[in-house]
Write a structure and sequence with these properties.
Radius of gyration: 13 Å
Order of helices and strands: EEEEEEEEEEE
Distance between the termini: 40 Å
């Protein structure tokens, strides 16, 4: 059974930075999978925020994080990252990583595997 474990969340003031990590295990050929970060704020639906393609490493972002967040992957360590800069209070949410998309690699794709999440809180 695939396991995804997020870490790196915490509390930060607006304008600050955090780097999230997602360690994958029992995911053979990690480099071949589309990976993504999602978030869910209290009272809101889960939102896809960043996706990274297998192979090329091309990335896609939702408009609200474009230019502030960077998704990356280290295939040898089977780890996904999300560098978050210039954080805003509206970035407060539970952040989830996801692996192995269904029907193509894109923002908002359906994914087969999910982590338990790590919480990010941004204060003014």
């Amino acid at each position: 059974q695939v396991q995804l474990v997020e870490s790196g969340g915490g509390s930060v003031q607006a304008g600050g930075s955090l780097k999230l990590s997602c360690a994958a295990s029992r995911l053979t050929y990690f480099s071949r999978y589309c990976m993504a970060w999602f978030r869910q704020a209290p009272g809101k639906e889960r939102e896809a925020i960043a996706t990274i393609f297998p192979g090329t490493g091309n990335t896609l972002y939702t408009d609200s994080v474009k230019g502030r967040f960077t998704i990356s992957r280290e295939n040898a360590k089977k780890t996904l990252f999300l560098q978050m800069n210039t954080l805003k209070p509206e970035d407060t949410a539970m952040y989830y990583c996801a692996a192995d998309s269904v029907g193509g690699c894109r923002i908002g794709a359906t994914f087969r595997n999910w982590g338990q999440g790590t919480h990010v809180s941004v204060s003014t």
